[in-house]
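(Structure overview)
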Amino acid sequence: MEKEISKRSSIQFVQPHDVWCAKGVRYCVTFNEFRQPLKKGGHILVSFIGDMARKERFCPIRETNWHHVPEKFKVDIVKCIREHFVLPDGDGYNAGILKRVGNSVRQYRHHLKKTFFKPTTKNREEIYQTRPSEVPLDSWIHLVNYWYSEKGKEEKNRREPTELEVFKETHKRKHESYVKDTITEEFVLDADSYIGSELAINPTKPKVQIQNEAFSKLMYGEDIPKRPLGYGFGVKGSDVFGVHSILRKEAFKSGDSSSLALQNMEKMQNMEKTVVSLNKDNKELQNKLNKTNFILSKILEGMSSGIPLPELAHLAKSNLNSQISDSTKAFGSASS
């Protein structure tokens, strides 16, 4: 059963847990031209992906590089999401799903490091003991050891800023404050209030995920616009400006022009084959018609010459399945 999210329903009542438990129900998701999920269905999908990123059976946390995660896990992720959501077909949408999952995994790993990895106050063994319950012990030890490594230390503060963080930084005045009694100040205060309330209810929930939810709800309200502010996750500059944008506006999809040309070529070839076949059938029908007309003319000629009707009928029947030249000879001999 495919479920269209009603505008009257509230997003807060559809949590990832509800999606996991809704057997046989698929939530419909609409997308914009950049393959970004929109509206309530899109919000539910993004929240579900954030929850999936925390499940070891889909996203093994010990893999510190998303590109190194085995293909089996990625295939299972796409299958699972399509089992719970109605999404357009196509490799582009599958790639977009995996990109979002990979981003959520990085955010979750950042949350774990910021929350539990305290090398200045705890030694390695003590950090081992602070393992979150949802993370297997061997994966946690592997992750902690990675954070202690030189490569792990280089990843510090490499997380991309959220849309809310970008909004705050770009709307601040010189003195790190916002203009009083403005929509901007009200928006920031409401966002901070929302984040505080969510952290109080679920303190283990990644703050980055909460920031994303706060920004989507407060900025876009009930209906996220077709082109979100700042374009959001997954959109590059080349998608908005330049050649790809022009092609898209002319009804060509990015990367699909060669495929479209190939499809047109195949259609032309099929049409040519159809024309050849029709010409062949037409020629055969014309031959049959000529043969029938010839036989009828000979019957009329035989009747005028006094040949008995039974003999004419026999000759006509025998000549229906022969060549026209053979019919000419047969009728010629009968008339003589």
The first strand starts at residue 2 and ends at 3. The radius of gyration is 36 Å.
